[in-house]
Design a protein that fits this description.
The structure is a homodimer. By secondary structure, chain A is mainly alpha-helical. The first copy, chain A, is built from seven helices and two strands, in the order αααββαααα. In chain A, helix 2 packs across helix 3 and helix 6 runs antiparallel to helix 7. Chain A binds a DNA duplex through residues 1-3, 5-7, 21-24, 27, 39-43, 45-46, 49, 69-71, 95.
DNA sequence: ACGACCATGTAAAACGTTACATGATTTA
DNA sequence: TAAATCATGTAACGTTTTACATGGTCGT
């Protein structure tokens, strides 16, 4: 099986929800789907060019002379078709590399203090993540109710919340367990 | 910040627990830590060579003339030092790309049947994973009690079990939710 | 004797991050 | 007017997968 470029499909998925430029795509990923996806600018801009030259997205025509430098893209019918096709036919792959679990699993090699400091830093990160998720949850209930994607976002958000709570519980436990 | 080669440290971590050859390292990863880590042969063999030439691991001297083709490695003192140093000083990074959540989040573009089929396949995978985790749990209690890594394995395993159960619950819910 | 698994490796191609480069616009 | 943020992009480098290549060993 050849390697598929997942970045392509991520950008198609995002543009299927809303017209955006590259910079906004990055912000969207960071603020909304960073829980399960990440992309860097070094991937986003070249991929946008490729998608455009393949006819899967197109630049939105500018209504006025402003925003000369802003390149806002929209997904095309062909793009939607390709997205659907990939989603329906590709097998789900799992490439796991979780450095938190790595450090706990091989934790014997670290001084307990250093391990604990890293665990506490993860705890803080997860607290912030949870706060952000609760904001997204409210936004979803108020502003995005009845959006065609709403039920899918709801399900994803629910997973994210439970996952983050599990992390918080477990990290606390690890922190206690190693300070004996 | 330059990019660190995480494969190196993974192999050092594994060899800190037991002498092994490349093939066994792969099996170990698949059977024991696939929950949070993965490596391919294309990474393992070249990395073993590099680690050896850097003096972080060494080939175990063969006691008899057999096993000419088997290259069993052991971690050196320098290797242990480098492992400890990396673990204590590196920041934990998160490069998330979860294709299950991707497919649910952008699930509107799939026919409900196709999405459900993929979710059911994930359910099966998680059931198998859970069964495997329970086997590991028993092994840990019986054969590996009092091993110096035991408490760290216990914590990691506990996370894996809770995570897998969360997955099973959530996947069932997704499956119900999309067949309306 | 056949298939499954053990065992080691390389090469090509693709993927992805990071740092760099540049400049406009907005906000305090 | 300075700082922050918006905005697009490229180049170098390193990482990772996949496919290929080869041959040994073990069980049935």
């Amino acid at each position: 099986m050849k390697r598929e470029n997942k970045t392509q499909f991520a950008l198609l998925g995002i543009l299927s929800q809303c017209e955006m430029n590259g910079y906004e795509i990055r912000k969207y990923i960071e603020s909304t789907i960073s829980f399960f996806w990440s992309e860097s600018f070094g991937q986003i801009y070249p991929t946008l060019k490729k998608l455009e030259s393949d006819g899967l997205i197109q630049e939105v025509e500018k209504t006025d002379g402003n925003d000369k430098k802003k390149k806002v893209y929209r997904i095309t019918k062909l793009g939607l078709k390709e997205l659907k096709n990939w989603m329906e036919t590709s097998n789900i792959q799992h490439h796991k590399r979780d450095e938190v679990l790595f450090k706990v699993f091989f934790g014997r090699h670290m001084s307990p203090n250093r391990l604990d400091a890293q665990i506490k830093s993860e705890l803080e990160k997860n607290k912030k993540d949870l706060a952000q998720l609760l904001i997204l949850k409210k936004e979803l209930l108020n502003e995005w109710a009845n959006h065609p994607d709403e039920r899918f976002w709801q399900l994803t958000l629910e997973y994210a919340e439970k996952q983050t709570k599990l992390n918080l519980d477990w990290l606390s436990k690890v922190s206690s367990a190693i300070s004996d």
